[in-house]
Amino acid sequence: MPGLTWIWTVFVFALGACVGSFLNVVVYRLPREKSLVTPPSSCPACGKRIRFYDNIPLLSWIALGAKCRNCKSPISVRYFLVELLTAIVFTGLFLLYFRSDIRTFVIGGEGGIIAFLNGGWLILLVMFVLAAGLIASSAIDLELWVIPISICWVVTAAGLIGSAMAPFLIDIDIIHGYDLLPAASAKTGILAAGAALGLIISMLLLFTGVIKPSYYQEHETESEVAQSQIKFNDRLEACREIVFLLPIIICSAAALWLYRQNPVFNDWWVKFSQIPPISGFLGSLWGYFIGCGVVWATRIFGTLAFGKEAMGLGDVHLMGAAGAVIGPLMAIVAFFVAPFFGLLWAAVQMFFKKVRQIPYGPFLSMGILVVIILHDRILNYFNNIFYQSY
Fold this sequence. Notes:
Blueprint: H1 2-29, H2 59-63, H3 77-98, H4 112-144, H5 149-169, H6 172-178, H7 186-207, H8 224-228, H9 234-261, H10 263-273, H11 276-306, H12 313-326, H13 328-351, H14 361-373, H15 375-388
Helix pairs in contact: 1-3, 1-4, 3-4, 4-5, 4-12, 4-14, 5-11, 5-12, 7-9, 7-11, 9-10, 9-11, 11-12, 11-13, 12-13, 12-14, 13-14
């Protein structure tokens, strides 16, 4: 059904451009703590409300010559690039899953557009949310050196909900066999449940003031300028983060011990955790913890070793969100792929003799997209290693 495939391809491109238009709103308003809904879009220079015919993704920017219709102020090329990038990424994901041989799977005995119509659309939808989150967070990180945690929460929620819902639409054996979304075994499920309990305990300790957040500023009434000049003992702040993480680690280990030592609980847990929606939810949750953990461990050890804050907590949450969608293994691989993009950027900087650095979020995002594209090859590589070792 090639004709239907290309109709969907055009639709997905248009959808991506529209989502990109919304992401431009997110990129500008979210870090500035403005509403994403009101007021309607307007020119930052003259304040004139932008009419609907001047707000058509991609086309309006070109038709207006990158200038406001009212005051002729220039419109940043970023708006066009974000819309175009989102449209290309969405289209690329659709073709990757349902048109190419790079990422293959079969649903209902068929691949391609038939698989898409028989539940594959949910997989693609979750991937769209992840891609949109990566684009928005990277754009904000490039401009302001910060990743809004709310974006990561949205992506994490999409991973958790999508992984729990997928078994209602797609046979669980297909989800497991093609690794479409995370799914937990009984062992990883108990680890995820224990870690979740530990996280609740840590948050309660944080909210009640028993433990302090890292880089905590005691004098909240001081001006922003004064607060920005506060000097922190970075190693001490890293130790505070270790204290926060201890209940998560302890509860996860205790849950695993209970699972192994209590046969009655073991039998019940195996039956309960392998109910398809529960397995999917716990698998996504475990991916979240592993994604957060690999970056947070690097942050803590780097800070302790060099006495300077290494990586940001936004990077921690970004990789956790990705882990909730692509699973723990792919999150780890993406983390180790990201530095290659950093090295490439450093080489470009050396060639042009520039010293400007950029935050790490965009590198993590590119690493995540690479493992999504090369998913099957990466999985086959690790499967071959596993089988050869036994």
